[in-house]
Amino acid sequence: xxxxxxxxxxxxxxxxxxxxxxxxxxxxxxxxxxxxIRALKxxxxxxxxxxxxxxxxxxxxxxxxxxxxxxxxxDDLIEKRDNPADRRSQLLLPTAKGRExxxxxxxxxxxxxxxxxxxxxxxxxxxxxxxATVMAENLDGGPTPE
Length: 146
Known about the structure:
By secondary structure, this protein is mainly alpha-helical. It has a domain at 33-109: Arc Repressor Mutant, subunit A (Orthogonal Bundle). The protein is 65% helix and 7% strand. It has six helices and two strands. It has a two-stranded antiparallel ribbon with strand order 1-2. The model has no long low-confidence stretch (mean pLDDT 90).
């Protein structure tokens, strides 16, 4: 039997990882879709976060991100404040409830990572991280050679 291609392996890994995350989020009854989780993570990790920075980070249309952010505001997970550096934009900050949910999400990610790396040494995990980082940077760097 031929070995799987890198594309097949990456697809299978991403699908399995996302499925595990979704299941753990569902088990904890957080009720957040993956897009909302990614946006909340962006807000929590960047003290100078704006809607534009989330759209760029997630590589999504600003209108789509605005809808997600409005839902996070409605659910009292984030709030907007005036941006003293740029009056045309507003800073996004997590609320106490948002920080609590983010703590739960970090635990969920640790559980999924532990399951995913079971049986691997620290060196193997570090090498995977290094290789995945290089591959992502290669793809982010522009057009692929033919």
